Amino acid sequence: xxxxxxxxxxxxxxxxxxxxxxxxxxxxxxxxxxxxxxxxxxxxxxxxxxxxxxxxxxxxxxxxxxxxxxxxxxxxxxxxxxxxxxxxxxxxxxxxxxxxxxxxxxxxxxxxxxxxxxxxxxxxxxxxxxxxxxxxxxxxxxxxxxxxxxxxxxxxxxxxxxxxxxxxxxxxxxxxxxxxxxxxxxxxxxxxxxxxxxxxxxxxxxxxxxxxxxxxxxxxxxxxxxxxxxxxxxxxxxxxxxxxxxxxxxxxxxxxxxxxxxxxxxxxxxxxxxxxxxxxxxxxxxxxxxxxxxxxxxxxxxxxxxxxxxxxxxxxxxxxxx
Length: 322
Description:
mainly beta, single chain
């Protein structure tokens, strides 16, 4: 490449080739960096090992390569033996490479058990505090006892078992997709999962999304996802008289009203001295009485020509003299 550079200068002359040389140098630098980066991408540096030695000692290890190492007398590896192996993955070693006192303990590999460690190992006599994943509980043959590291091993192996009120994976919901991580097999009581109806379907409220909940070991019943007609509309106070096609496609339907519209309506919260628990419907000419804030006082409301007419608030108590 350098001979090519001098050849360009000789042919073109310094002034004529100045722009060409700048472009060439830039291309040459970028190319060198790209090749260097591609070579080092994902590689791991030589691990710093104290108390042991590497079987294959080199300054750099490519991605997915393995390295074996051994520990000195009185020490052991992260794999709980005097020797161990580790794999280079995207610039990091898995598992970590170290040699520890043979009386220390490495973390136990137990399903559904959680614990925290900053060093990757525990000194002798250390008491391990563990937690279980959601939906599991600690099964301990000795209540309130913590596993302890004794001479390189744990005197008690913690076990997390499924809780009685936990749920397994939910059953399939017709015409819907449940949203959850496929790897999760157990769900704690109270855990909620969402589901989405397939295109062209919805639940009763008109929404395409729903929830199911784990309660006492069982999943709650999911509101079904029903097929939605493009021509359907929400009708209230009606009754379907005849239908030949549940999909409602190119069909004429006959409905009958089951409720006549009120002639007058007293709206809740509109009247300052009348406390309504809900809207009051009136037929034409109908009269209703309401308390108006004082004992034995009431007001009368009458529907007249589709308008509410109110009397004054007055006492309606009858007093008898003997």
